[in-house]
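Q: My labmate handed me this sequence with no annotations at all. I'd like to see what the chain might look like in three dimensions before we decide whether it's worth expressing. Could you predict it?
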Amino acid sequence: MLKCGQFQLILWPLYFLFMVNLNNEVSPEHSTFSMIYISVALVSLVNVGLAIHYPIQMVIPEKWQEVTSVPILIIVFAVLIHIAVFVCYPLFSGNPSDAEITRPRYAYALVTINKATFVLMIVAWIALHVLHRYNVRKAREAEEIRHQKELESKRMEYQFLSSQVNPHFLNNMINQLIQECEEQLPETAHRIGILGELTRFYLEIAGQPSITISREIEALENYLSLQISRFPDCQIDFIGKEHVGGERIIPGALIIILENVFKHGLFRGPANPIKVRLESSYNSLLFTCCNRIDKLSGPKESTGIGLANIRKRLDIQFPEKYRFETSETTDGSFCVILEIQQV
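A: Here is what I predict for the chain of 343 residues:
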């Protein structure tokens, strides 16, 4: 839609041309200059009237705005016409006498202003009515979008919680296994302890829309520690984690991205490093992850809590403030870019 200023730059010149041509046909005895002079006065009158009308309407309850717009518009224009005709015109015309007021030129100006202002008032009311309807429709659409996002957020939260098999019971069992393994299997006890920390992390973030990046990295390091214990030849090149702190991110996002790497990519040996980069500026957090694609393995079953889930949660928590992209490079790598604006 055109902005108000652009709309008026188009409307008023067309209006002037129309009125001048109409004047030449209907009243050829009046000069083009006088018609332009009157039209300029009308432009000023209409804009001043609308400028006064708008703040008055804003203090009226929304349910009464459409009903009261016409009466208020009539009153505002009536007062302005009275001021223009009986105050401003005589003042700038040198206080004409009664005889002068009856002159054709003066009478023509008054009649033209009166009729044209009435027409413009009707047009203005129609425009206000259409604008009001448009704003109501946009407000309803925005409310519907907000409602849908809330429903989607609840659905994903339920999906996330449903994927946990009695996590409190699992956490208690992990602690018991740690106690049983500490003496004879200390390394195993250490791994179980890390798994317990990761379990507590998922219990903590359940239902939270966002967490600090430092808390996310802490959980990510626990996750990577478990994967390295499974795959000692795993190569992870992680740069930038020490330069972030209070920036916000949706919980579990980085773990999901790395989990996708271990599930679908190549990560073992010096030729297949996982390259992870984390950068933070004053108002932006940038995370990138690249890994070699495992083209020999077939498709694997998805749990639904993956990259698509991240995008949906970003839409809810950081609408229009994020960039989430995936791509395949020419050298056979798969890259994920996640950037979140912090303001």
